[in-house]
Amino acid sequence: MTSDPPGRIRGESHERTQNPVHVRRCRPDRTGARPATPANAGAIVDRESSSHTETFTAPLDFCLPEDLIGQVTITETSTSQSVQTLAGVFTIRFVNEYDYRVEFPDGRYVQSGINRDLVVFVASPSHSVLNLVTQDFRTVYAADGTPVGKLSVHAVFHFTFNDLNGNSQVDEGELKSAIDKFDLRCT
After folding, report:
1. H helices within the chain, ranges in order?
2. Residue 30 — φ and ψ, nearest 5°?
3. How far apart are CA 129 and CA 138, in angstroms?
4. For residues 91 and 89, what is the distance between their CA atoms, to the nearest angstrom?
5. Tens-place pLDDT, residues 137-146
């Protein structure tokens, strides 16, 4: 990992697409103009995107026999935006989109349709919220290209906690809500 000024870290596979943007929040005056002051200035906005492709041999994750092994090609495209305010609030939103295809020796194959993870994380000094939604829709095809089945995954993870003692860890009594839901359908 490499460090970006001031103290930001980005993964080696990520490429910055725009330099940080300093945003000033302002109070309106009588003319409607919004002058910036040190007390209300301040957020650093950072946008990143990356894409990479992997190819490997594996079974389909769900719905088909585990001993049916195929050639998997998956391309992941990630985009994100983070905002850090002077008040100590950090927000990141990102989307990971996947183009997934697996080809089996008997000619059958599976192709993804919508396949993505949507994530929002907000942290202030005393309160944090994480939301993750996964949508994964794939179609199973016969060797002649005829659709013969569908696979769908819908998953939701939500986590909220209040850091009452300021140690940035979830301690007893600080967890306010946690939802972990996973739905799989094979037709």
Report:
1. none
2. -65, -25
3. 30
4. 7
5. 999 999 999 9
Positive or negative: CA dihedral 158, 164, 167, 170:
negative
Q: What tokens appear for 155 in the block?
A: 């998953």
pLDDT-derived band at 12, boundaries 50, 70, 90? very low
Identify whether the C-beta of residue 60 lies closer than 8 Å to the C-beta of residue 110.
yes
Rounded Cα distance, 165 and 119, in Å: 26
d(CA 107, CA 121) in angstroms, rounded, equals 42
How do residues 65-114 score in pLDDT, each as one tens digit? Answer: 888 999 999 999 999 999 999 888 999 999 999 999 999 999 999 999 99
> What contacts 16, CB < 8 A, 6 or more positions away?
4, 10, 46, 47, 48
Give the helix, strand, coil percentages of the chain, each rounded to 5.
Answer: 0, 65, 35
Contact yes or no for 119/92 (Cβ under 8 A) = yes
Name the β-bridge partners of 183: 154
